[in-house]
Amino acid sequence: MTAQAKQTQGRSFAWLVPALYIFFLLLPIYWLVNMSFKTNTEITGTFSLYPHEPTLRNYAVIFTDPSWYSGYINSIIYVVMNTVISVAAALPAAYAFSRYRFLGDKHLFFWLLTNRMAPPAVFALPFFQLYSAFGLIDTHIAVALAHCLFNVPLAVWILEGFMSGVPKEIDETAYIDGYSFPRFFIKIFTPLIASGIGVAAFFCFMFSWVELLIARTLTTTDAKPIAAIMTRTVSASGMDWGVLAAAGVLTIIPGAIVIYFVRNYIAKGFALGRV
Amino acid sequence: MNKTWNNKAWFMVLPVLVLVAFSAVIPLMTVVNYSVQDTFGNNQFFWAGTDWFIELLESDRFWEALGRNLIFSVIILLIEVPLGIFIALNMPKKGLGVPFCLVFMSLPLLIPWNVVGTIWQVFGRVDIGLLGYTLFSMGVDYNYVSNVSDAWITLIVMDIWHWTSLVVLLCYAGLVSIPDAYFQAAKIDGASRWSVFRYIQLPKMKRVLLIAVLLRFMDSFMIYTEPFVVTGGGPGNSTTFLSIDLVKMAIGQFDLGPAAAMSLVYFLIILLFSWVFYTVMTSHDGETGKGGEQ
Mind telling me which residue stretches traverse the membrane in this protein (chain A) (predicted)? Predict the structure, then answer.
């Protein structure tokens, strides 16, 4: 009885732990949002926990200055290109890995994983030279292809995880019913793993969006991502803190919007479809 | 699952193979090529054999960066893993709290890495940051730009802030898969909170925990963007990790030979850990397959 009483008592305060943790997580984000609504004189001159004279100037700067907003457009273009390429290439491959055994399948699967784990720093210089040789430097497709290095393996692993959850009997029944492979794949199989495709696409989008090193190395002006534009501002003297904060807040938004829809799959996605 | 042997499956893998070969094999071959040659510019190359590797393995710079990387990884694992387990154990199992926790805890994971750096760079500043200013007004001499230990603490707290949620989410996924019957049986037996954790929850979390540890180890081992933005590798070289050093060498100084040799050594270390990771992942796939057949 006492043990039980102790346990219920312990449980009633358990919410404090996640609550404190979430408070710790939100504090730095709040500070960034807070700064983005302040004027620069308020940021550097006074110390205030909330904007006393809230202003939208910082956001206005970003939305009116092409050197700022083109960064977002560039990022979105190569991220979307990369997501489409990665998922499209990964779908048949993941199906092959989840349904068939073939010569060298395990080695191939492992090799894909090593690319997901490869440090981008190792590839920065050779990528630069490879894409220079093809005349692709400073184009969106260069970054999109380079990000395939880690996003294609990611998509294959995640999709394979989801596809293995679909019983093989469904494939066999469909073939007996006279479905051809392409028709079966599009009409029956794709709807069954729709959530898996969504999760894979989300993670490709996310990892391409958060990557800076390769994107920065492969671009100079025309395809420069927002992330690189932000670091350039950091190193300049006479910082415009308010604009920097506003730019940061705007990069958080894409993730924040879709987070609710993928909340149950976040762990699975980060663990490459293996939870 | 019983898989049929079918070599035609290669055709389905082909697009992936071509894509990844283009973006991984060709660049890697370039690196191998540079690592055994020397150049004096004008695209003239000379065979250098293993010189660069010997130079690398004898240089203090490489071992110091490697050491810093390992220390960093060990510290963040020692903090993030127990903290992550503790938070996951205390998370609500049902009700409105579940989506609330999941959404807010995932938030740092989805923020671009350089913005994570920017957030903490600003947050820690003594003049305008909440953390820096608060510490400063409390009389703590905190400055991550000039003080080595402050820079390290800032990077470690930042990494905890950024990635502990990954451990939490993975552990939570393991915990919710435990059937209620286990806990009822434990209650009937009068098991203590500790023995419930030790004999029911921990064994069930073992695999997800292993994945979390490996993922955190590998990602912290190739960390680049966040310390680059916050400290730029300084003060001095005190936070220069392998990635930062490598990029400095390859893109900043264009020392192709040494950078290539370092890339290969770095890649081999990653390869070793990837193999451990792969073994862990796929050994379980085999187990579930057997379980399905019974």
Answer: 12-33, 76-97, 109-128, 140-163, 184-210, 241-262
Q: Which of B143, B71, B118 is nearest to B226 (CA)?
A: B118
Mean pLDDT across the stretch A33-55? 82
Question: Looking at CA atoms only, how far is residue A89 from chain B in angstroms?
Answer: 5
Q: Which two tokens stand for residue A119?
A: 């440090």
**Residue found under tokens 């055709």:** B11
Quote the pTM value: 0.85
Using an 8 Å CB-CB cutoff, list chain A residues near B16: 89-90, 93, 112, 152, 156
Please list the residues that pair with B5 across neighbouring strands.
Answer: A101
**pLDDT tens by residue, B210-253:** 888 888 888 888 888 888 888 887 787 888 888 888 888 777 77
* CA atoms of A175 and B178, how far apart (whole Å): 37
User: Residue B91 burial by CB count (10 A; 0-12/13-18/19+): exposed, middle or buried?
Assistant: buried
B63 and A CB contact within 8 Å: no
CATH of B61-254, one of 3.10.310.30, 3.60.150.10, 1.10.510.10, 1.10.3720.10: 1.10.3720.10
Task: Report yes or no: A202 and A269 within 8 Å, Cβ to Cβ.
Answer: yes
How far apart are alpha carbons A150 and A208 in whole angstroms? Answer: 9
